[in-house]
Structure formats: C-alpha cells, structure tokens
C-alpha cells in the first residue's frame, strides 16, 4: 500500500471514529498532497514525494508551536502539538542524539572535512544519509559544533 493510500485510509477510519483533531489534520494533509499532485501534474505521488509533503507540514506545525509558546498562546500551541503527533505517525522514527552525532562524525571523516568551509559538503552528505529522520536545524548545529 502506498503512503498516499495509507493517508486516505487513516482519514476514513478517523472520520468513522469521530476523532476531530485527527480527521482535521489528515484532511489538511490530503489537501497538501492534492496540491503537490497538481504541481507535479501526476495522478499519484511516489512515496518519497508524499514523505516530503508530510515533513514540510510537520515543520510548519513545529514552527507554529514554537511561535505560539513564545506568544503565550498555550491553547493554540497545544492544538499544533496534537496535529504534529498525528503527522508523526507517518514519519520515520527520528534519530536519537547519539545516533545523529555518530552519523555526522562518520560523514565528516568520510568526506575528510577539516574546517567550517566544508560545512556545505558535510550537510549535503549528512542529509542524504539521514533521509528525513532529523530536522535540518539540529543537523546544522551539530555539524557546526563538530567542525573546527
């Protein structure tokens, strides 16, 4: 079963179970997938494209949650967190801090990076290996810390 079909099936089951937050989030995701289909001019999206849309939507929720917390809007932040939890069901398991650091260290030695000038090459190689299991901001901070 494709990831896009899984989203549709989950939406149907959440509607039947009357789970309002889950249904609303999955409807939003389905709409975002529809826009991506129109943009790519295709009938169905490959799983990699579906995963990219899900990651983009999850990032929007994380950013909104941070902003609502900074603004003292705990109720809105809680809503964004609930939507993020629904989206995280479709994302691959995130790397732990130790796994991420060992992976980045391996990339640095593999490339032979010696200074911050090599950060772009390290980031490109690390993002390819991480494959969406960590956000770019934390990877960038780690690479910056590890490179002299």
Characterization of the model:
- The protein is an all-alpha fold.
- The chain has 2 domains: 86 residues, Uncharacterised protein YqeY/AIM41, N-terminal domain (Hypothetical Protein Yqey, Chain: A, domain1), CATH 1.10.1510; 50 residues, Arc Repressor Mutant, subunit A (Orthogonal Bundle).
- The chain has 7 helices and no strands.
- Helix 1 packs antiparallel against helix 2 and helix 2 packs across helix 4.
- The protein starts with a helix and ends with a helix.
- 20% of the residues are buried.
- State the CATH architecture of the largest domain: Orthogonal Bundle
Low-confidence stretches: none
Beta-strand residue fraction: under 5%
Looking at CATH, the homologous superfamily of the largest domain is Uncharacterised protein YqeY/AIM41, N-terminal domain
Shape: globular
Tell me the CATH topology of the largest domain: Hypothetical Protein Yqey, Chain: A, domain1
How many helices in DSSP terms? 7
Q: How many angstroms does the end-to-end distance come to?
A: 46 Å
Global Rg: 18 Å
Oligomeric state of the chains present here: single chain
Short characterization:
Helices cover 76% and strands 0% of the residues. By secondary structure, it is an all-alpha fold.
Itemize the secondary structure elements and their pairings.
Layout lengths: L2 H14 L3 H21 L6 H24 L3 H15 L8 H15 L7 H12 L5 H11 L2
Summary tags:
148 residues, mainly alpha, Hypothetical Protein Yqey, Chain: A, domain1, 2 domains
